[in-house]
Amino acid sequence: MRSSLGRVRGLGSAKEGAHHWWQHRLTAGSNFLLMTWLLISILRQPAYDYTTMRLWMESAWVAIPMILLVLSVFWHFRMGLQTVIEDYQHDESRVVFMILLNFFVVGLGAIAIVSILKITFGAAA
Amino acid sequence: MASRNPARPLSPHLGIWKWGPHMLVSILHRVTGSGMATVGACLLVWWLAALAGGAESYATFRDTFTVEAGGLNILGYIVAIGLTLSLFQHMMTGIRHLVLDTGAGYELKTNKMYAMLTMVASVTLTVLFWLYLGIK
After folding, report:
1. Per the structure, how many domains does chain A have?
2. CB contacts < 8 Å between A and B, how many?
3. Is the pLDDT of residue B122 over 60?
4. Which of A92, A96, A117, B120 gives a 20 to 30 Å CA spacing to A102?
C-alpha cells in the first residue's frame, strides 16, 4: 500500500517538488489552527489599548502560539508567493523576485519574532 | 527562463473562458493570498513591533487607523474589513482546496456549489466577526 503522494514522489520532469506541495498543505493546516486561535483571542480581549495588549502578549501562552503563527504563516506565504512568481515571471527577473521574496520573508519574520520575544522576556516574571 | 522562445503559443487565457464561480474563487484565493502576504504581513509586523516599542510607538500605529473617540477611521475600515474578508475567503477556499486534493468535489454541480459556499461563508464570517466586536 502506498499513498497517492508516495507514488508520485520523484516522478514528473522536475523529479522533485512534492515536498513543496506537501509543506504548503501542512502549513495550511497549522495556519488554520493558529489563525483561529488569534481571531478568537482578539475577540475575547476586554480592550485594545497598549497596556491590555502588552499584558496579554507578555504571557508565554500567548507569545508561544504567536511565534508559531509567524513561522507557519510566513513559511506558507513564502511558498505561495514563490508559486505566483514562477507563474508570471519567465525570464531573469524571476531570480531577482525570488531573492527579494526571501529577503522580505526572512527580514520581516525576524522583526516579528524579536518583537514578540522582547515583549515576553520583558515581562516582570 | 532565459532560453524561452517567445514565439511559442501560450495556453488559452482568461479571455476565452466563460466565467463561473470556480474560476472566480480560484483567482480570489491567489489575490487574497498575495494581498495578505504583502500588506497583511507588513501590518501584522508593524503591530508587533509597535507593541514591543512602547506606548508611544503603539499610539502611532493605533492613530493611523482610528479616530480620537476610538473607532476606526476610513483607512482603518478599508484595511480591517479588507484583511478580515481576505483572511476568511482564503481560509474557506483553502479548505476547498484540501477537499479537492482528496479527489472529491469535481462534479460540475458540486464544484460550483462548493465555490459559491466559500464566498457565502467568508462574507458571513466577516460580518459576524465585526458584529461581535461592535456589540461587545
Report:
1. 1
2. 72
3. yes
4. A117
The Cα of B116 is separated from the nearest Cα of chain A by a number of Å equal to 20
| Segment A25-76, tens digit of pLDDT | 999 999 999 999 999 999 999 999 999 999 999 999 999 999 999 999 999 9
Chain A residues whose CB is inside 8 A of the B58 CB are 50, 53-54
Distance of alpha carbon B73 from alpha carbon B79, whole angstroms: 10
pLDDT at A84 over 60: yes
> Domain containing A88: what range?
4-121
The CATH number given to whatever domain includes residue A42 is 1.20.1300.10
What's the rounded Cα separation, in Å, for the pair B6 and B9?
8
- Name the minimum distance, in Å, from the CA of A29 to any CA of chain B: 9
Q: What is the pLDDT of residues A89-109, one digit of tens each?
A: 989 999 999 999 999 999 999
